[in-house]
Each structure stands twice: as structure tokens, then as C-alpha cells.
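Handout, section B. The chain below has 205 residues.
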Amino acid sequence: MSYYFCIVNTRDQPTFEVEFGTSKQGGDGVARFSQEARNLNPFLMHASLDYVDDLQWHTNQMYLKRIDHFASSHISAFLTPTSTRFLLLHLPHPPNTDPIPPPQTSTSFSPYGPYTNSFPGTLTTPSLSSSNTSSSRSSIASVSGGNSIANNPTSPQTEEAIRLFFVEVFECWIKSVMSPFGGPTVGVGSPVFRSRVLAAGKKYL
């Protein structure tokens, strides 16, 4: 599975983005997006924002689960109390696929409309209490179907792993944006925050 994670502020502007691959089932943590998929990913992310904006009025949960998909790509979302959106695109890929290095310059977000095929996400999710998080982590550790996380974007194991990833990134994000030396757009650009996001991806995905 290849992942593309992005944080989008309330003005629909990306403030952070990173690619990584699965670390389950012997994965090396390297994203294997084709160049075409890499160019398309920001458009898919931008198109899914409409579904996040709609779902936020119908649930009090922060984790919105899978909200959109296009072909084999699936997008999961997490909404912070300040309406900052965490988006994770996950794309299964065949095993033993050579990684394709990302370009030197990041792709900017652009309006994207007609090429989306979506469905509403399930709105009932567990709460983000510490006891629930710790029990969920233990349940993830006991799941024997690690292959489901690595290859199946719609399995319950994958949904739970993505939720735990979002929760850990959310905790790191709060610390970054509350720093007096940073802010909502400055703190998330630090190498420390980036390394913690990648560590969370390696831990759960």
C-alpha cells in the first residue's frame, strides 16, 4: 500500500504533505505511486474536501473513515476541532513493485471536479478517549491479518490502523501549532513533525 498524507487548513490550502509506503508484511516504507498517480493525487484530495465539509454537519466524530475513492485510490479523513482537515490517500499496489522517486518540487493543489467517484463514509466511530485508544492499539497488535492492512484498503483492520495513525498525528499536530515559535502553518513544516508523521505511518500502516 502506498500512502499520500496531507493537512489542509480552513482556506483549503495544503500546509503539509508527505508520501510513504506500508511497513507491514515486510514492506520497506517506500511509496510506489506511478508518476501519473502522483500527479493525480492532489486533485483527488482537493475533490474530497466537499465531502468532508458535508459530513462534518452530520457527525460529532473526528474520524470520518473513508469518504471518497477514485479507481483503486481511497481517501480517509480526520477533522480537527478547528476544522483543519487531515486527508490520507491509500493505494494498494502489487508486491515487488520498484519505487518511483518523487519529483523535487511538490505538486500544488488545483481545483478538481468531474473525475471523482465517491460514496459517503460511515459516521459511527469510536471516541478518541485515552482508554479507547490504548485498547484499540492492543487490538491492532493482536490482529493476525497484517496482510489486510498492507493490501486491503477496505478491511476493518485497515480502518482501525488509519484511525490510530490519525490520532497520533493529531497529538503531534497540536504540539506543533501551539508552539510560540510556530503556528498553524509554520509548526507543521518542521523536520521533527515530518519525522513523527512518518514514524506513526511505520507504526500503524
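Note. The two ends are 9 Å apart (CA to CA). Compare this with the example in section A.
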